Amino acid sequence: MLGNFTYCNPTKLYFGKNALEGLNEQLPKYGKNVLLVYGGGSIKKNGIYDAVMKVLKENGKTVYEDAGVMPNPTTEKMKEGIERARAAKADLILAVGGGSVIDYAKGVSVSVHCKEDFWEKYYLRMEDPDCEIVPVGAVLTMVGTGSEMNGGSVITNHAQKLKIGKVFGEEVFPKFAILDPEYTFTLPKYQMVAGFFDILCHIHEQYFSGTDDNTSDYVMEGLMRSLIHSADIAVKDPKNYEARSNIMWTATWALNTFVAMGKTTDWEVHMIGQAVGAYTDATHGMTLAAVTPAYMRHILPYGVKKIARYAVNVWGVDPSGKSEEETAKEGLAALEKWMRAIGLVMDLKTLGVTEDMIPGIADSTYIMQGGYKILTKEEVIEILKESM
Ligand code: NZQ
Ligand code: ZN
Residue 273 and residue 286: Cα distance in Å, rounded? Predict the structure, then answer.
């Protein structure tokens, strides 16, 4: 049965070719000072920086820059960004990049006027902001996280060996997001497919939980089928607009809070993946890929009914004459085959994990309560070892 919920998603999206024109509608709503946040420089090579700057200048903005946001943004970089935003007296933070840049911009937006330590308040104590929040807008260049239309902000503290995702409320969601599928064409294949798996994993995390009849599960089956279909095309033909635009839209729906309404969710694979990330700084989607097969095998006895349904409705497994367990196993085999075919990293060693890190990674893994099996620390260790 659907649980009770209140639903609101305040992010205004501009989607498609020339979506950047939406900036002209948005920029006049904010003051003069814009903090332009971006990553390691891909936007300078592919022309997105110039295109965004042009619109900012045409709208009479004074632009301050905060470059160098790394994949898996750190607390150290956050301190720098907060100082820059304060010095600029930023009226708007414009994040141009992938999930890392947008997550970081959200973290900065709630910290500029905050007197407490942002890491302790938001990421360790999981409190909500009680200060003025600087509005954030996003120009998305990498598809996967859904950060363009949610309140997630994942930050890494290397000193504490923790990578933590704070889920902020709708006051922190980007006010607007520009989604032009062509902006993703320059992504290296490694990042592209990591993003594809991040999307699938977000859907898994919300699908593999609960035993009720829930509209969201049907929606998610459709999203997964579309993703798998389009990913197969995009891997062969990365500039295929139809496939890339469908994937961009699927990524947004996979994690813009909609499909989680009124249902329980898991998120354990993300918790293990984030702990791996805290130790290795590996690409987010790849950390999820490396642990997913072992995790799924581990929960199969507890969630066999749902995994069998997934096998049939998502992977097209024919269930006739088979037990639920056989059908479910066939579905997981199909998943693994597809993962290998699109070029995902399937083991933790390749991501830099060594045997001696495993106890620490297990200690950094948060145990969630909504999956088909609530894991013990020992089980997390088993899954990590199996994923090596
Ligand atoms: O830094 P630049 O030079 O821009 O290069 C980036 C980066 O190296 C590159 N890139 C992005 N767009 C490009 C491009 N290269 C060429 N052409 C383009 N158009 O791609 C690399 C990866 O970018 P990043 O932003 O790190 O990737 P992603 O979008 O996967 O974000 C990952 C971060 O988001 C967090 C992850 O944990 C990780 O820290 N997540 C955020 C979530 C949320 N907000 O809800 C949920 C997710 O589960 C995830 O945890
Ligand atoms: Zn993710």
Answer: 8
Tell how far the Cα of 70 is from the centroid of ligand 1, in angstroms. 9
Kindly write down the DSSP assignment for every residue of 178-204, as one continuous string.
EE-GGGGTTS-HHHHHHHHHHHHHHHH
Q: Which atom of ligand 1 is nearest to 38's Cα?
A: 4
pLDDT for res 1: 84
> Can you say how many angstroms the Cα of residue 49 is from the centroid of all Cα atoms in its chain?
23
Ligand 1 within 6 A of CB of 195: yes
Ligand 2 center to 343 CA (angstroms): 18
* Atom of ligand 1 minimally distant from the CA of 43: 4
The DSSP output letter for 40 is S
Q: What is the pLDDT of residues 70-117, one digit of tens each?
A: 999 999 999 999 999 999 999 999 999 999 999 999 999 999 999 999
Ligand 1 center from residue 212 Cα (angstroms): 34
Query: Which segments in the chain show pLDDT lower than 70?
Result: none
As a whole number of angstroms, the distance between CA 306 and CA 131 comes to: 43
E strands, the chain, are 12-15, 33-38, 62-66, 92-97, 136-140, 152-157, 162-167, 176-179
Tell how strand 162-167 and strand 152-157 pair up: antiparallel
Q: Please check whether residue 20 is in contact with residue 52, taking contact to mean a CB–CB distance below 8 angstroms.
A: yes
3-class DSSP assignment, residue 89: coil
> Would strands 33-38 and 92-97 be described as parallel, antiparallel, or unpaired?
parallel
Instruction: Tell me which amino acid residue 53 is.
Output: M
* Cross-strand partners of 179: 15, 140
Greatest Cα pair distance, the chain, in angstroms, is: 68
Is 0.70 topped by the overall pTM? yes
Q: Which residues surround ligand 2, an ion (CB under 5 A)?
A: 198
Does the beta carbon of 184 lie inside 6 Å of ligand 1?
yes
